[in-house]
């Protein structure tokens, strides 16, 4: 589909804060009364002007951070000129398109404001620097950047700068991914395989291997599975999470956020095929996430779970029975 994960010279990074059963965004029953104030309606689409980066020492860090977003593998990939931190050759903009500023594409413009925050996946409060490293180690299958490294300072400077374009106390369009209607049946990897062949293989390859650039330093179209793909536990490895992203962004030459190409069900089925670990190899991960069972995301696929549903149902659905189970307990199953 000219790119399930379209590149600007792209890769994975922060994948926004994963929503979970019990998270910084979801309160346990009795923890906080529901607010009665009507939320503001997001109407603005934000534009970021790169020519406005200041011509000073801070601006120099911002510019390097922007380059790291677009050319992550070139600078810190397996053959990186400034360090070898990544375990694959993907770039941050594979997920966070347009340097994290594209609407409905794991937008990062609020990341500077959103951290520190509690992360159920890790079971603790993370700083923004720790969240950056979370993505360096997970989707990039790498090792953490030193917290005082030039690269970390550049990433954080860039996130602060793009945040300056966000109007205070006013929501904007695209700060979260599009929602999808969850089907009453399980997502279908077999149907997803047919859709993948029709719309995705032309860029990502029949075996999901992606297409390397001629210089072999990074990808024109990134791999979707295999030993150089993202790890299990990455946000893109969750079916609902990936389907929300696909809806607004893929195929890259056919879809826009306001005119999606894929139906919700098609996006779910493609995500189910891509993330079907019985079909596809991924990097071998020994340690999994969510130390507290009751905080696991709805579509997280590693047990044990604090409910009676199978691993297969958590991964592929149908999800409504799981949602209803948690609702009956006074908790919201989030994703």
UniProtKB/TrEMBL annotation:
UniProt cross-references to InterPro entries, sorted A to Z: Cyt_c-like_dom (IPR009056), Cyt_c-like_dom_sf (IPR036909), Cytochrome_c-type_DH (IPR051459)
Gene3D superfamilies given in the database record: Cytochrome c-like domain
Keyword terms of this UniProt record: Heme, Iron, Metal-binding, Signal
Keyword Heme among UniProt keywords: yes
SUPFAM superfamilies attached to this UniProt entry: Cytochrome c
UniProt xrefs under Pfam families: Cytochrome_CBB3 (PF13442), SoxA-TsdA_cyt-c (PF21342)
Gene Ontology MF: a single term: electron transfer activity
Keyword Hydrolase in record: no
Signal sequence interval, chain numbering: 1-17
Occurrences of domain Cytochrome c (ranges): 187-278
Name this protein carries in UniProt: C-type cytochrome
């Amino acid at each position: 589909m000219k790119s399930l994960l379209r590149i600007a010279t792209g890769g994975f990074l922060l994948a926004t804060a994963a929503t979970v059963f019990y998270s910084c965004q979801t309160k346990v029953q009795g923890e906080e009364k529901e607010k009665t104030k009507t939320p503001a309606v997001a109407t603005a689409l934000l534009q970021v002007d790169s020519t406005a980066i200041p011509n000073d020492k801070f601006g120099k860090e911002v510019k390097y951070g922007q380059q790291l977003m677009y050319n992550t593998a070139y600078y810190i990939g397996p053959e990186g000129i400034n360090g070898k931190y990544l375990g694959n050759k993907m770039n941050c903009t594979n997920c966070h398109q347009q340097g994290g500023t594209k609407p409905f594409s794991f937008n990062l413009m609020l990341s500077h404001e959103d951290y520190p925050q509690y992360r159920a996946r890790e079971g603790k409060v993370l700083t923004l620097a720790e969240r950056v490293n979370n993505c360096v180690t997970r989707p990039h299958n790498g090792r953490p950047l030193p917290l005082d490294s030039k690269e970390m300072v550049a990433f954080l400077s860039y996130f602060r700068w793009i945040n300056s374009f966000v109007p205070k106390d006013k929501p904007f369009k695209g700060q979260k991914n599009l929602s999808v209607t969850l089907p009453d049946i399980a997502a279908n990897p077999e149907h997803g395989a047919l859709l993948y062949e029709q719309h995705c293989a032309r860029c990502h390859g029949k075996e999901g291997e992606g297409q390397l650039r001629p210089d072999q330093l990074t990808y024109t179209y990134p791999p979707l599975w295999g030993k150089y793909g993202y790890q299990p536990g990455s946000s893109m490895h969750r079916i609902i999470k990936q389907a929300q992203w696909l809806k607004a962004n893929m195929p890259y030459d056919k879809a826009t956020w306001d005119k999606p190409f894929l139906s919700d069900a098609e996006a779910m089925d493609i995500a189910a095929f891509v993330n079907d670990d019985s079909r596809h190899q991924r990097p071998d991960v020994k340690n999994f996430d969510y130390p507290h069972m009751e905080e696991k995301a709805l579509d997280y696929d590693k047990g044990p779970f604090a409910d009676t549903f199978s691993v297969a149902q958590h991964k592929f659905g149908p999800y409504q029975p799981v949602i209803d189970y948690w609702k009956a307990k006074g908790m919201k199953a989030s994703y």
